[in-house]
Amino acid sequence: MNQRTTRTLVFGGARSGKSAQAERLAAADGKPVIYIATAAVGDDEMAARIALHRQQRSAQYAHWETVEEQLALGDAVARASRPGNVVLVDCLTVWLSNLLFSEQREYPDVGRIEAPARFAAERERFLQALSQAPGDVVLVSNEVGMGIVPQGAISRWFVDEAGRLNQAVAAICERVQFVAAGLPLELKGCAC
User: Fold this and answer.
1) Strand runs (DSSP E) across 33-145, as ranges?
2) Which family does it belong to (predicted)?
3) Cβ-Cβ contacts under 8 Å for 61 (sequence gap 6 or more)
4) Deepest of 78, 133, 149, 191, by most Cβ within 10 A of its Cβ?
5) What pairing do the DSSP bridges indicate for beta strands 175-180 and 183-188?
6) Is the pTM higher than 0.85?
7) Which residues contact residue 78 at a Cβ distance below 8 angstroms, ignoring those fewer than 6 apart?
8) pLDDT given at position 1
9) How far apart are CA 143 and CA 159, in angstroms?
10) What CATH fold (topology level) applies to the domain 7-188?
C-alpha cells in the first residue's frame, strides 16, 4: 500500500496553542515521531523554558526521539525524515532568529540589514529538505506580522523574513492550520 506523505504547517501567535496542536497532529497516526527542537540556550529564562519543554515532552511523549538543531535545520529534516515516521519541527521562527544572530554581530537601528552569510543557504536547504521529505512533517511557526510595524530595522527585517518563510513553507505544505486561543482553523488541505 502506498502511503501519502503530508507536510503540515501550524502557525499562530505566542501562546496560541500551536505547539500543542502540532503535537496532537504528530501523535495522531501512532507513527514514530522525531521532534526537532530549534531553541538555543541564550539566557537563564530560555534555559528554564527549554528545561520545561524537555520535561513536558518526556512525561507525555517519552517514546519520541528528540533532536536539537539550532542552525542546520534542512540537514536535520533530511536525516530524520523516513517513510512511515513523522518529523515535528518546533519552531521555524526560533530557527530564523538563531540564523539571524548566528554571527553575534550588532545590527543598526535604521538602514538596510544584511543577512548573515549562511542565511540564504540554510533557508534554501531547509525548503529543499521539506519538499523532498519521504515521511510526514509537522512544522510550528509564529505569525509575527499581524500587529503594528515594529520599530527598528532588525525587528522589521525579522517580521518580513518570518512572513516570507511562512509563505514559502505554506506553499510546500499540503495542509496549513492557523491556531488562535487553542482553536485550529484549517486554511489549506482537509481535516481528513
Assistant:
1) 33-37, 65-68, 86-90, 136-142
2) Belongs to the CobU/CobP family.
3) 23, 27, 33, 35
4) 133
5) antiparallel
6) yes
7) 129, 132, 133
8) 34
9) 9
10) Rossmann fold (3.40.50)
Which residue has 511557526 as its cell numbers?
141
Q: d(Cα 183, Cα 31) in Å, to the nearest integer?
A: 24
Catalytically active residues, by annotation: 53
Contact, 127 vs 169, CB < 8 A? Answer: yes
- Report d(CA 153, CA 94) in Å as an integer: 18
State the Rg of the chain over Cα. Answer: 16
∠ CA(176), CA(148), CA(113), 5° rounding?
A: 85
Helix (H) or strand (E) holding 176: strand 175-180
- Averaged over 166-192, what is the pLDDT? 93
Contact 77, 126 (CB under 8 A): yes
Longest dimension (CA), the chain: 56
CA torsion sign for 151, 146, 180, 137 is negative
